[in-house]
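Researcher: Here's a chain I'd like modeled. Treat it as a single chain, no partners, no ligands.
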Amino acid sequence: MKPLAVSMFLLFWLHGLSQVSQTVHQVDVKDLMRKSSSQKSAAFILASLSPMILIFDAPSSSMGNMGMHLDAKSEHLHAAAYVLSAACLIGGVALFKAASRNKAKAKAINTNLSVQMEHVQVATSKRSFQSFPALGIKIRWD
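Model: Modeled as a single isolated chain. Structure tokens:
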């Protein structure tokens, strides 16, 4: 009886741990713009780091081209520099794309409220020149 009680307790305890609570997070335009800005900054850093790696690797790489023999460790370091440079460039491009996507989301969330004055026909006269406010809301779901 005791192992059954312990196993039932563990079963209910694990079931309670596996429950996912849904928290509603309201997406804010400021948050998306801040995220876009930080992603763009990181993308600039990665994209500028890529040629810097190649520039710092160029003098030692050119020694091998001038006929000087480089050992295997040095050749592996040059290959690692090229791979690291390519990874930085690809990461920068991916972050630029994510930043533009977040900026587009922020623009799509923005609502465009405009107050327009419309002429309204009143039953007592042919046309009233009194303006009444009208509210137009434009929401883009792109």
